[in-house]
Amino acid sequence: MNTRLFLRAWLVTWTAMCCAAPDEGAAADRGAEAVVVYNKAVPESKEVAEHYARLRNVPKEQVVGFAMPASEAISRTDFRDKIQQPLAAWLENARHLSFRTNDLAASTEKRDPRPITAHIRYAVLCWGVPLKIRNEPALAEEGMERLRESVRRNDAAVDSELALLPMMRANLPLYGPARNWTHGSTNSAALHPTNGILLVARLDGPTPAIARGLVDKALHAERDGVWGRAYFDIRGLTNGPYKPGDDWIRRSAEMARHAGFETTMDTNAETFSAAFPMSQIALYAGWYDQHVSGPFTRPKVEFMPGAIAYHLHSYSAMTLRSASAHWAGPLLDRGVAATMGCVEEPYLEGTPDVGIFFSRLLMFGFTFGEAAYASQGSISWQTTVVGDPLYRPFGNAPHVLHQDLEKRKSRLIEWSLLRAVNQNVLLGDPVAKYIDLLNQVEPTRTSPVLLEKLGDLYTGTEQPEKAVQNYQLALEQGPTALQQLRLFLRITEQLEGLRKWDDAYRTAQRLAKTFPDYADLPTIYRKLAGLAEKLGKSAEKEEWERRAADVK
Prior knowledge:
alpha/beta; Serine Threonine Protein Phosphatase 5, Tetratricopeptide repeat; four-stranded parallel β-sheet; 19 helices
């Protein structure tokens, strides 16, 4: 087989599965489409704003500060007087938004309140800008009594309320959510102020340094690609009012598979356990724990550069200042580049449809801001969007990115090859073809990622001896800690299936010694006790049983 010619044809097939990448020239100057907003009362807020503007080539005159409270929560009055109206006035005075004049013919009784031109599509709120608007029950509006009681409130995420800034002249109600008329759009150009929506996101997190670093993470991933594995966590619901949440996440997993990601979907009612070896995370979506849990509580979480993660919960972003409470703050603390969350109870229908979100990112090449708002059925409601809204994680055509990595001799080529193999196998190509290919291409020899994939392909074709051989080779090539843990678990399982008790025993011992803080160590100790019994090691069996009983 001519491997180079085969690879060329292979990458053409791979690229054909993906939608065309956005126009690179149009994307180059998108910093000019952003206004960057900071809080004059918080010095770090301006520092984050200037850092972002410098890296994204936002014109200096489009970095604006307003005096506003430094707290995460703000009153309706302060929001209107210190953020909403000053920003609207600035946009109009700087001619970034232009509206129809008042001298139109009297026949236009129902004038369209939207701007007729807009040069700004994005608003970037920087660390220190308040997160949420408090509910003010004393504020009365006509018709509010017609809303169901659960949404008869005027609290909202600052981001989500500002998204309606182009519609201020329509005097929309403050109570309850507003319908997002761009929801589900497959045309990114529709997400525009002339269509009534401003794409608002924030650079935020537990610390100013985390907020500042979000644009760095985005630019790194735009240059080198978003690589790694995808993890999705549904609850296994088959009916009932909460089933749509499962459906959204299930569709997200399908999108990731079609994009070539090595994808794991957990269908148990519980979330991923702390023992799950969640290595090299590129994409994550799950639900429904109130506070960060499972693998995300480990001392080291393996988020890859540019990773995007979201956990569906009513209060997932109740605060962004904590590295341990709720979800959005902890995910940012552990290294994600982009996330979303709810500042107060939105009810399920008021949360983003992450199936739409991931499809717009992966298949349509949307920016993070475009995908975030296309996924929301409601605005002027509870969702905050955290990350660089200009971040376009999948804006490069796969073959262009692959060729660039080859030219730079980047080790990331292993992930590009992995995704290409996955997509072609998904198309129905014979697995044996890709076993042969991976055995021939040079990167496989030193890649724990590709060697593990070879092991998986051998497992799937019922060749356990060869699977073990490749998993063991992967262990020798410097895998990450959690990939190493997964390899130990797989090797042990395969060896037990082959009835190679002695080899399985030694591998499980290595696992226990290498990972003394493993969350499910009692299970490993009990496995070792069972293997020791098979090998006639009575004393060792008793010792492993004692250790299993002693672990708290």
